[in-house]
Amino acid sequence: MQLIGKNLHSDLPFFLSKNSFTQDINLKKDRSAIQQSVINIVLTRLGERPFVNTLGTNVYDLMFENMNPSNPNDDINILGYKYTIKNALDIHEPRIYCDDVIFSVDPSNVYLLNIDVVYGDTNSSSLQTVRVSIERTR
Amino acid sequence: MAKAKPPVLGSLDYEEIKTSLINYLKAQSIIKDYNYEGSAIRTLIDLLAYNTFYYAYYMNMVASEMFIDSAQRIESLISLTKPLGYTVSGRRSARAKLLVTGIDIGALEVGTFPEHEVFYGINEDGLEFTFVNLETSIIQDSDTLIEVTEGELIVDSSAINTFDFDKQKYYITNENVDMSSIRVRVKLSGEEDYTTWKLVGNIGSNFQTEDNIYFIERLTSGGYAVQFGFTNSLGKSLQEGDLLEVRHVISSGSVANGIYQFRAGEPRGYTPGNLDVGTSCDECDPSNGGLDQPNIDLIKFVAPKWFSSQGRAVTKRDYQALILNSNLVNDENDFIVFGGEEIYPPRYGRVFVSLSGLEEANISKLLTILKENSVITILPEYVQPKTVDYRVEIAFKLKNQFLTPSQRQELENDIKQYIQRNFIEYNKFNLELYSDEVSQSVNSAYINDATLSSEDFSISMRVAGVPNEELVVNSSNEFNIGMNQNLRITSELTDSLNRKYAIHVVTTSQTDINKMISLRAFNTDTNVEIPGSFGEIDIKKGILRIPAISQVDYTAILPLAKKYINAGINVNNIYLTKVVSRT
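Output (structure tokens, whole complex):
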């Protein structure tokens, strides 16, 4: 059973954007709700949420890791981060299974790290990819 | 739309608050992702739950700290007990008794050993602590016992310079000061010498406007304020031109306990002789009594009683509060207070105090405190503590009938150790042991192995009798002695005519159990009754009196009918002598 289009999931959008027709908040539904949740989990620091200290990942630490910009995924330092992200999603997002986490460095900006989370929802075989980008500011 | 569940109010559990919010959201169908940790709505729920939890906890703390019963912070107790006239003491210095040798008595002024001599003690970790004697001592010998107090001695002779004349207060800001070391001396303008002023504990005392007194207030910041009287209030006030000297000791607390190696410091120029500290003596004590902070439970116990008695001891509890407040005992199991009406035969108008492990000098110091605070119709009296042993035997029921003898033995030992660890105590006043409490605890700890009920307990008390001394027992528990039985005595009794005899409890009817009846004695050689009075017993009330007839030591064994020990007026030992299993 596909979740898309069934309004099984609905969530508030992070930026609380207004729907110009209904004058109400635009809700995130189904696929986009899950996608928002995945981004939220990846970008939450471990220990950030009170009383839920296993929620989140340590991806911000990646900014300070040595890695090969041309192919960071083979770097031994990166494997731990990959595992942490998969583990966090397995525990805290039961609607999906995480298939892969792919790291890439933007060739035009070596301080910009892209994390592609490849996942499928538990009721379908098709995979989705969501990109989370983090960038060093200085 | 389903009806929203009402929120759980007053919960202090984060998860409960969160579940309550989620349950509330379940009633609507617009936002559904409240169950997923990564969702935005869940982030909001977590935030709201945290905020609610934070304020619930905060309000709970605020409410708790408003009452003596529930307050946990010492600052709150300082404030709460202030209207009760009770001053919460802070850190307390360790005290020690030293045998000071080499004093040149001839050179001393009227045989007094001066105050504020310095001694050094080294603890087992090699740390050195300073001790001083806070009082001058009258001595007869070149070797004498001196009580010293640990801490840095501060004598502020120019205290008047920092004195707050408007509030009539002198502030001691150091929070580590031992309150009992504070001494105030004042030289009023026009006077020739300093005089020591008296500390007053509460306003119930009969002090007048013109008395040389002061009060001590504990500051919530941790220090102390020495408070003098205002015009037309209790005690004299200080004016410009008066001189004030305040002495106190800054204590190191409990870390200075247990020191037994001392040496004399440099004499301050006015103590003749080569002072030294003797290596050991019978009355010498290692340093003890140092406390880092006051005992919160003790404050909660003493302060209301202090207030209710207003400094005058009338009831048993007033005496308990006075004794605990004297700093001569450590806790409420070190002593017992009982009224004259509680003993047999009753002695009305007396209150008896019994203490364990206190020296004679301290006992008389304590009695002086009690007498000063007693009302005129009550006379406090010290009685030597008497030790009474209790023996407890237990036969529990096995749940598993098929245990091997060694498994059974192991279980018996295990349960015995469990009870000993959790319920058995020795050499203390106020001991209690209730069979139903022990049973409940054993039954829940050994839920698959054993069943224990109050009926499985057998409790007896053993009281030692001394030759030519009367023995009086008031057990507050019915004796389990049947009709027409010999009193169980461990040794053969002998009277002054060298006749061997046994004491017999002769009961003619069931009603004899409920009243005081005479004991009779029978010659164990001839089996003929010996005429005379051999004491009396009230089986129901648990009272026994054996007159001073026996010429030998003996122990009376008195089985108890009720399955509890509520130790009464003696120092008690409880022994768990036997734990066996039955099928």
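The helical segments of chain A are 30-43, 76-92.
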